[in-house]
Design brief:
about 10% helix, DUF1918, mainly beta, DUF1918 domain-containing protein
């Protein structure tokens, strides 16, 4: 998994009623974009250091922008 600042980290709920968590990567600890990441969580407005597991994936800023409809 590789990421850049501004990418989103999506963590799928691993249990039946656990919601998906979405956060924005605000800091990288490695120059190559590998984990861990400092993530600002959108649901709680908190920042945490995250070592993503197999239930997580990164959506790049470019991917998000390319999926938006044209203005």
């Amino acid at each position: 998994m590789k990421a850049s600042i501004g990418d989103r980290l999506i963590v799928e709920g691993t249990y039946n009623h656990e919601p998906r968590r979405i956060g924005v990567i605000t800091e990288l600890r490695h120059d190559d974009g590998s984990p861990p990441y400092v993530v600002h969580w959108m649901d709680s407005e908190r920042e945490t250091l995250v070592f993503p597991g197999p239930d997580a994936h990164v959506v790049s800023k470019r991917e998000r922008e390319s999926s938006l409809p044209p203005l």
